[in-house]
Each structure stands twice: as C-alpha cells, then as structure tokens.
Design goal:
14 helices, binds calcium ion, about 15% strand, six-stranded mixed beta sheet, D-Maltodextrin-Binding Protein, domain 2, single chain, globular, 2 domains, 12 strands, alpha/beta, about 45% helix
C-alpha cells in the first residue's frame, strides 16, 4: 500500500517537475553560511537486491555517498522489482520516480542504438581500456550528451572485467552448434548470436536459473564465476565456456535524474561523481578477488566442464561482431559518432597493449 502510494506520488511529482524540491529539506544558505539542506534519494537497480558485486556494489555506492556527505545526501537502494521492475530502471529515473539508478547501458538499446557502446562491445575494449576511453578519451562526454536527451546524467559505476562466454546445455564444437540455440544474451552480443542462427533473449538476472533449468533457454551468459556460482547456474547447465567475447568488460552505470542532479549544491555533485569513480574501481577489485576462487570451486567441487570456445567459433563470432557493430553505426548518426571515437581509441590502446599487457600475460604464463 505504501509502495503504491509512493509510486503514485512519484508520478505526480514528476509531472509537476517538483520532485527535487520534495526530496529536499531546509533552505538555501545565505552567503558564507554552511549549506545544511538535506536530500533523501532513492536508487532503483536492475540487479537482485544485494546480489554479489552488482547489487552490493550499488549498495556500497549508496552508503559511500551517504557517508561522504555526512548524511546530507542520503541514498536508499531498491533491488530490481522492489520499487520498479529491473528493466524499468532507466525510465523510472528519467521521469523522476527515483532520483538514481544502477544498471548497465546495454539494457537500453531500445532507447538508442548507441547505448550498448557505453557498456560492452563484442571484441571491443577491456576494462582498463574502457576506463581510459571514458575518462580520458572523450567517451564519457559522448555518453553524457546522449543521456542528456533523456533527462539523465550517467556515471561509470562498476566493471566486471572480462566475462565468461556462458553456460550451454550442449557442447559447442562448430559454428553449426549455435544454430537454433535459444540463449539469454543482451546487447550487441545477442545480435551477433542471431547472425549465426541462434535466438537471443534478454531476461533479468533473477530469472536465468529457472529459465535454463526448465529449458525455456538452452544457454545463458551472465557474468563470471563469482556471480554465476551465486545463481547456481552450474546446476542448470554443464558446459561453461570462455572467453567472454561478448563482454570483454561490462561498464555498470549509475544514472541520475538530470534535474535532481542539477538541484544539488556543487559539493554534493562532486561527492556523487567521486563516489561513482570509487565504486567503478571497487567492483572490479571485488570481481578480480573472487572470480579465481569461484572458478576453482566450479571446476573442482561441482565438476563443471570449463573450456574455451573453439578458435573457428571465435573467428566466426568476431566476423559477425564487426558486421553488427558497423551496421548499428550505419543506421544511427549518434552511434556512428560514438563508434568512430571508440574505434580510434581501441586502435591506439590495442597497439600499446600488444607491447605491454599481451606479452606480459604470455610471459608470465
Ligand atoms: Ca554478461
């Protein structure tokens, strides 16, 4: 009942544009006075509440903002479905039902074909490179320009690192084995799979296990060992493939209602920005710390068949990926601008990493 009333209030307030004012207590300070206005914000997310690294990352971000601001900006987190359904996060924040959201831009390809470029591109930038592009290569400016059209301000707010290719209920030996495969795979990766004869579907994380176990889907990618183990996906499919060609990184996003953000005093805006930057790094650190052990557990305790996708399959996926990405850019002017910037950055980063990361990994073994 309370929730319904809240939702109703959110809709009405958004319509009158007075949400920012309502979420605020206190008056603007006079010159030289301390700003003691207090803000109560809600954050809706695409993740199950407190799901490892994704949901908990959102919760840590909210706590960090609340603490860093001394409680002047207090953020309360709602898991996917608690206040709005997971995939309504973008709209809910845009219309002001919540002031803040946490998710990933590739869920919003229906809003703009350029959105997925800000989360993950098949065979694209890895995390290190993506952060380079976003913070120092013009990527974030493009992202902000795109989301401004929806009344949102985006912040990078977490990263998974290179993901796994996913769970399959059958072995993948050749490209032909992908044909007819019903797979949960969002974003551009899904379009690539369709190109090779599979049927991609997009489901929120919380629905994956049941969908895979009951045969609604034959395969799913999710994140990596840490998150996949938490969902128990090894109990629904036996074959676990790498590498995550479809998501060589996945940038998570914190989105903020633009009017609400602009209503904040400058120091609180700076706190939001700095805390997002901190969580962007922290989620990756948690993934890095947990994935190795989870993979070992899947392999040794649960006898999961962990193996690489065959080179021929990866080559076909790469060829289809290049086509899909080029076609997305060809049908949307903004996506074309984004891709031009992204590809120029990738060329430079790849050239550098051919002399740094790549030979180092190989030499280390
Ligand atoms: Ca994924």
């Amino acid at each position: 009942m309370q929730r319904r009333q809240f939702l109703k209030a959110g809709g009405t307030l958004a319509a009158t544009g007075s949400l920012a004012a309502c979420a605020r207590e206190g008056a603007a300070p006079a010159d030289g006075e301390r700003d003691s206005r207090r803000y109560q914000w809600n954050m809706v997310t695409t993740w199950p509440a407190n799901f490892p690294a994704l949901g908990t990352g959102a919760s840590r971000l909210a706590q960090m903002i609340t603490d860093a601001s001394g409680g002047r900006l207090s953020v309360r987190v709602y898991g996917g479905g608690e206040l709005v359904p997971p995939f309504e996060t973008f709209d809910a924040v845009a219309r002001g039902t919540a002031q803040m959201g946490h998710g990933a831009a590739y869920y919003w390809g229906g809003k703009s074909p350029a959105c997925p470029f800000f989360a993950a591109v098949p065979f694209g930038l890895n995390t290190q490179e993506m952060n380079g592009w976003l913070y120092h290569g013009g990527g974030l400016e493009l992202w902000r320009e795109l989301y401004a059209g929806f009344g949102l301000v985006p912040f990078p707010a977490g990263n998974t690192g290179v993901q796994m290719a996913g769970w399959f209920n059958r072995e993948i030996r050749t490209v032909a084995d992908l044909r007819g495969l019903k797979m949960r795979i969002p974003g551009l990766g899904g379009e690539v799979m369709a190109r090779l004869g599979a049927t991609p579907v997009n489901l929120p994380g919380a629905e994956l296990f049941t969908a895979l176990q009951t045969g609604v889907i034959d395969a799913t990618e999710w994140v990596g060992p840490y998150n996949d183990l938490a969902f128990g996906l090894h109990r629904a499919a036996r074959h676990y493939y790498y590498p995550g060609w479809q998501e060589p990184c996945a940038t998570l996003e914190c989105i903020v209602n633009k009017a609400a953000f602009e209503s904040l005093p400058g120091d609180l805006q700076a706190i939001v920005e700095a805390c997002c930057r901190a969580i962007n790094d922290d989620v990756l650190a948690e993934m890095t710390a947990q994935n190795g052990r989870a993979l070992e557990q899947l392999r040794d305790q649960h006898q999961v068949d962990v193996r690489a996708l065959p080179d021929t399959v990866l080559a076909a996926l790469k060829e289809a990926s290049d086509q899909v990405v080029a076609e997305v850019a060809a049908r949307d002017a903004f996506a074309a601008r984004v891709l031009a910037s992204y590809r120029a950055f990738q060329d430079d980063a790849a050239a550098w990493h051919r002399s740094s990361e790549l030979p180092y990994y190989l030499a280390r073994g």
